[in-house]
Structures are given as structure tokens and as C-alpha cells.
Amino acid sequence: DPGIYIVATPIGNLNDLTFRAADILKRADVIAAEDTRITGKLLKHIGSAVHMVSHHEHNAHIVRPELLARAQKEAVALVTDAGTPLISDPGYRLVRAARDAGVTVTSIPGACAAITALTLAGLPTDRFLFAGFAPPKEKGLRDVLAELGTVQATLVFYETGPRLARFLSAAADILGMREAAVTRELTKMYEEVVPGTLPALAAHYDAAGAPKGEIVVVIGPPLVIETSEADLDAALRAAMDTQTL
Ligand code: SAM
């Protein structure tokens, strides 16, 4: 059927491609891909010969009208290099334009590094805020951490090895003793989860140097001072005692 198909692809482990994704990537009329060499390997793996057009951050505004026009009568699949399109990846404007043009949009869900990291971090998942990539410059980074630091939710950041130590030291500075986890190379051979408080993780990666591979940092919600029922009773009794004196 004509329309735009948002297709999630693996984030490292080819077996994470869903049956539905493989099906649409073989049957689409055209695939809009971020890096056609990377997607080319995936297509080869599944035996797909569908033609690709390049659609990335820098040319998206130029190719979007053509993709939209084709999606009126053809199946146009959108993929990015890894994971779910639109999640710290291009695609949002294409979906928006498709909606505005009355073109059907279908999502084929699958791997996403943020969700995979959340499921491994051992931190609260009832409420989380996906923060994408933090700004690379110190001032911007600190501003974002201060702004998000007051949110009562687990925070999820995408990071890169070379920037990890700086990110963690700013986070430790601004957010304090929060529990966190550095997750790396998710779904791949050297998948790793390093849990710890922000100051401990900052010290660890400061000493260890830049880790290789792709990274998601998960930071637990602000600490709430836990008060037990017994503590509360004792405090109340003490307050009442003081009043009767
Ligand atoms: N759209 C992708 C998704 O659904 O997760 C994210 C794309 S974004 C350009 C790339 C970033 O995602 C990396 O810098 C890293 O923070 C994270 N990432 C992607 N794959 C990962 C993996 N296998 N392990 C850890 N982090 C990963």
C-alpha cells in the first residue's frame, strides 16, 4: 500500500530486525536511508534489492518533496543507520509533512538504544525523560543538566566515548549523588552495563579514559529522603512531647 513506512533496524545485532521490517524492506518501492552503504549491508543480508535514496540531516529538505510525491502512490520506507528513525535521527519533518499532505504513515517498531538501556540499567522506569545528545559545549551541557535535574524522572542521554568523562563529571557536579548506569555496545558482543553513583562513574571514566563504542547514560530520578513509618511516629511523638512541656 502507498505511504511512508518508518522502519526500525537493529542497533548492533542483525537478528533484532523484525519479520515485519524485513518484509517491508523487501517489498517497498524505495528505501530512504541515511547512509546507503550501511543500509546496503542490511539489505544484502536479507536479500533485498530495493532501490535506495539518500535522506539525511543535510539533504532531507531537498529530497522530502520527492519522497512525499512518491509516497502518494508507492510504498516509501524510511530507515536510519541504526535503531528507530526519528529518535536522535532524521525523519520527524518527513512524518509531519506526510501528515499535512494526507499521506498514510505506518511505523514498524523495533530496536531503540534508549529503551534497551532503560531495561538494563536497573533504575526506575515508570517515568523517564529521553534527553537525546546533550550539548557538546560545557555551558550548554551544564544548562541542560541543571534544567533536567529538577525533573522527577529517570533521564536517558545518548553519548559518545570521547565525551563521556566530561559529561559524567558535569552530571556529578550538578546532579550529585544520583544512581546511574553507563551502558555500552548494546546488543553487541561486548555489551556492558556499569552501574554506580554519578560521582563514582565520573571518577571511574576519568581514570579509565574514553571507552570505545556507542553509549547510553541512564540517570536515576532525584533522591527522595526516605522516611519510615517508625521514624514518622517518633518525630510526631517528640513534637507532641515538646508541646505538652
Ligand atoms: N535512532 C537510534 C535509536 O533508536 O537508538 C539512535 C541514533 S543516534 C544517531 C546514535 C546514538 O544512539 C549513539 O551515539 C548511542 O548513544 C546510541 N546507540 C545506538 N546504538 C547503540 C548501541 N548498540 N549501544 C549503545 N548505544 C547505542
From TrEMBL:
Broad enzyme group: transferase
Major place of residence: cytoplasm
* Locations listed in the record: Cytoplasm
Q: Which reaction does it catalyse?
A: cytidine(1402) in 16S rRNA + S-adenosyl-L-methionine = 2'-O-methylcytidine(1402) in 16S rRNA + S-adenosyl-L-homocysteine + H(+)
* Gene Ontology BP terms: methylation
Q: What does this protein do?
A: Catalyzes the 2'-O-methylation of the ribose of cytidine 1402 (C1402) in 16S rRNA.
| Stated name of the protein | Ribosomal RNA small subunit methyltransferase I
Q: Which organism is it from?
A: Pacificimonas pallii
Which taxonomic lineage is given here?
Answer: Bacteria, Pseudomonadati, Pseudomonadota, Alphaproteobacteria, Sphingomonadales
Which gene name does the record give? rsmI
